[in-house]
Amino acid sequence: MTTHTNEHTDAHALGEAAKAVVRRNTELVQGGGDFALFDQLFADDFVDHTPQLGGTPDKAGARRLYHALRRAFPDFHAVIHWQSAQGDMVTTYKTYHGTHRDTFLGVPATGRAISFDTVDVMRVRDGRITEHWGVAHLYSLMQQLGVLPA
């Protein structure tokens, strides 16, 4: 019985550590623009299984996306609603917020406040993000920017 308890405790600790890495990325890199921390948190062989339009599925592509978001929405930040960990995989449901101050996805600055929901899964190994899968409600974002009908 002790072995099962230790395995459960180890898995829980691994999950909590992985969630902390993802939370630091969401709050300090995406929300705070700390790109020195980005380099620490993302593995050099990072793979994005769902890169955004025109992006590349690697660490450089994730960095470019984060920079584009921070440039277009200087106050970009997320509210994390919940996180769940299963082993080294962390699922996060969050809502991004910001004010559109520069071109994003070809849309010139509108000055509008935006928010859109995202669900993503990140694999964390040895304290670094190694993989990502995500679904962002970009249709809602484009509606808010006036590109698509409400």
Automatic annotation (TrEMBL):
Pfam families: SnoaL. InterPro entries: Cyclase_SnoaL-like (IPR009959), NTF2-like_dom_sf (IPR032710). Gene3D superfamilies: 3.10.450.50. GO terms for biological process: polyketide metabolic process. This is Ester cyclase.
